[in-house]
Amino acid sequence: MPARAAGFDIPPAPAPVQPLLLPLFAQTSLTNGMALVVVERRGLPLVTAMLSVRAGSLSDPPGKSGLAELSFGVLGKGARRGNTTADASALAYAADALGSGIEISTGAQASRLSMTVMSNRLGGSLALLADVLRTPTLPAHEIASSRLQLQETIRLEATDPGALASALAWRLYWGDTPAGRLSTEQSLARIRREDVINFCRQQLRPEQTTLVLAGDLDLAQGKALAERYFGSWRSPRSTSTHARPELSMGPQALGPSTLLVDLPGSGQSTVLLLAPYPPHPPLRSSAAERSQLRIGALASAVLGAGYSSRVNQQVRIKRGLSYGAYSSAESLPAGGLLLLSSQTKHQNASEVADVLRSELLRLATEPVPEEELSARRAGLIGEFARQMESTQTIAGMAAEQLERGESLADLASYSDELGKVSAEQLQALAQQYWRPQAVRSVVVGDLTLAGEGLRQQYPDAWVIPAIDLDLSSDSLRRPAKRH
């Protein structure tokens, strides 16, 4: 038998653990109240400029869900630039000429505009972003076009079991609160250009905006550029600072513990489990309150982050019921939501729902072995470190911290805090949040092909044909037609 060769037959020994080196997150503000964060990262001549505005879907007024997404979406469709007006094509061409594009996104608490450019083109990108944010023209035809695109997206998602199940889970958990009021075709149809104009007048203000610059520059350079392009920006005197009572409204459970949605013709069923999750603590919170999010992140990772996570092992590896099972979590100041998800053959939906529920509840009854905790910690810390490799993800990380009301200084202690989470803390969190009565299920698929297993497993479930769904209704059903 030939000798085994090192490097081919024998894998190399693991390298020593490398220290996690974080860039410096420097903060200041302009005289107009606009916040500035500069993250110096030398080595490549790239800079990401990201504008974070504290206005998202939670700012939508009742009956007009989707206003924030529609309003931010049309910012890049027209703006005044000096003495001229640039339409959508001209703005896109200007971004292309800088070697980039304007990326716009809307979340629950904030919305962002960003560009990543070569360092020597940063001034041009900030000039473009400033015009788009400060002097949008909000053309009526672009608002109408964007509304139609959003409505078409909603129609498409209504035929996708995964997207539909996620929307339903969010609606069931948050109920009739700003977080639970989802965009619908009807709510978008009620939005007029005047609504968009008023929204932008109220929300696009320097004191509600943070500029994050991440990459090949320092604080002095960043502040000089910020003052040049945003220093003259002033809030309208006639508009008061927007209050945010929506952030204090906690979840209001809607509907049953189990919802079965019949989507004939769907290729597979999506199975979702939803359960409470720690909220984001207030800015001046105790260390114990802040640690809940680290414990929750590790618990979620144990459940469904990575190939060897618990739900993936049980659903995919051991039973072959799906190509994967996953966990995700999102926290708002008034509450958080954990989701366990998997797609499977219709006839397997009942078994998958059982497995997901069993694995979630097991965290409250059995401590997680330290070896498993270590593996999941390493995965989270590795993902955190990878975000430091891109100016775009660094900027996004800084923006997210501030959007959630957290301190940028907390980023430096992330890996240390995660390393201190014990199995006992994880089990205590599971016992607090994941009691059997708090866990709910959503299954979207072809119920005829699924057979009787689901209905027998959940005899008290709401069963709704997808064609009859109305996400704006407390019953989730369209009103019955009168004959």
UniProtKB/TrEMBL annotation:
SUPFAM superfamilies the record matches: LuxS/MPP-like metallohydrolase (SSF63411)
Peptidase M16 N-terminal domain segment(s): 43-154
Residues annotated as domain Peptidase M16 C-terminal: 191-379
Pfam families given in the database record: Peptidase_M16, Peptidase_M16_C
PANTHER family on file: METALLOPROTEASE (PTHR11851), PROCESSING PROTEASE (PTHR11851:SF224)
Full protein name: Insulinase family protein
Organism: Roseateles oligotrophus
